[in-house]
Amino acid sequence: MSRTQHHRMMESSVALGKLDLAPGSAAGLDSVPRISGGDPGTEPQDPPNLNGCVPLSHQVAGHKFGFHIGGILQHPDGTVLKQVQPAPRGPREMQFYNTVNAEDCCDPCLLELKNYLPRYYGTWSTPDRPHDLFLKLEDVTRHFIKPCIMDVKLGRQNYDPFASQDKREQQIKKYPLMEEIGFLLLGMRVYNVCSDSFSSYDQHYGRGLVKDTVKDGLARFFHNGVRLREDAVLASICKVQQILHWFQSQQKLVFYASSLLFVYEGLPSSSSPAPLHSSLPVGPAVNESAALSLAADGGQEEKGVREETVEEKGVAENNNNTEVAVPRDCSPPTIYNQYMKARERCSGEGCLHGNSGDGTPEITSGSNSGLWEEDNATWQQRGVLKASANGNQTKPQLERKDEDRERGEEPGRGGGAEGEGGRDVTDVEVRMIDFAHVFQSDSCDQGYIYGLKNLLTALEQILCDAAQSSLSAPTS
Ligand SMILES: Nc1ncnc2c1ncn2[C@@H]1O[C@H](COP(=O)(O)OP(=O)(O)OP(=O)(O)O)[C@@H](O)[C@H]1O
Ligand SMILES: O=P(O)(O)O[C@@H]1[C@H](O)[C@H](O)[C@@H](OP(=O)(O)O)[C@H](OP(=O)(O)O)[C@H]1O
Description:
The protein is of the alpha+beta class. Helix content is 34%, strand content 16%. The radius of gyration is 22 Å and the shape is globular. Bound molecules: adenosine-5'-triphosphate and D-MYO-inositol-1,4,5-triphosphate. The site of D-MYO-inositol-1,4,5-triphosphate (I3P) has 7 residues, from helix 4. Belongs to the inositol phosphokinase (IPK) family.
């Protein structure tokens, strides 16, 4: 399919203007070709000529190319290609991206939502298989050198309202705690600064986490083998807060089996101040060094955890991350002080972990409390959060920002950025992905909101635990 044809197809979906994603009523979707090889029973086909595309080397969850229908590739230009899944999932996801990215879209709700998604560049296919469509997406990890990546599925149910009884049972069986916890860690890879390697955690790791261990299981994503990256936890909290605000403000869409993709830079900066409590443990289930040495000792390997092999270490990542500015770590004491100050300003226990009356913990929201707004300013100065960039910009970043401006987007969105006065910041990405089960609605997405609140509580508790550990640690 030529570029023009792709474009035309995109325009025809875009022209719908309004999402109509319910099965059987998907206006315009009939024109979307079904991908070949979609039926498990069909004849095996020759391997496709992928035009230089390769399976995504840093994929942490989901359908894998070559193993499942609907896998993920990386284009030589660095973008991610997600194969359109068999109907109705793939066309539904494609129409979702088309609608949110429609040039004439002026709905403020969708325009804001766009900020939380990977950029969308339309559809792509190889010349020899023009009907095998892929969604061409920004690689959210693209500007990181050692990207630590985590995929967390949100919501109280992993299936949509139109799912068959079999599908419901299959999904519930996989993680019965979904309804109570509201999120599921699908997979992650974490950079270990000591061994200069990644540890990968598959879906079995996440499914093994229960109510009492899910916080520590999550904390492991932020532990680099030496210390907890509190700066990355805090920056993640702020990003998740923004997404929560969006969900609380909209009554148009509901998302089932959709994920948040977290990314932060694992490579430490040489300019980072030495953390005061760097050697503190982060809790029994979170000490990565302990887990790794267990495996190295020939001890019983942990379920769902895999260390990168020596051969793999030598393999360059296919993410075009060659020339980027290294974000500076923020020292844990700074984060700790700011976090505690924020908590003190809060009126008592109920503020950060109170009860909203719907069974989920109440998380302070920036616009209502002033707590996050006020401290965001301080944290920006401290270099924890992204601030307007006006400092010593490196060439690649300047180029990215120009590119952003051309698209009419906030400069630095999704890219590395410096804080006020040219200070580096803790760069974290949190983006929504996987939209195979998005539907129109006329009420808030309570399931997703429930999951977001619980996720925020867990992230905040990780910081609290670290702060408490540092307070009780003996001073030398
Ligand atoms: N835009 C992106 N940038 C970087 N990585 C991505 C991007 N989109 C997807 N990935 C990687 O691919 C994985 C799977 O993505 P996604 O959830 O969209 O696929 P899926 O096959 O629909 O998943 P599932 O099987 O859970 O339905 C993510 O966990 C992430 O590692
Ligand atoms: O984590 P696992 O064990 O790989 O399980 C998959 C996961 O639950 C996906 O979310 C789901 O796709 P949907 O969310 O789109 O339903 C997929 O369904 P599938 O097998 O029907 O593709 C499951 O197999």
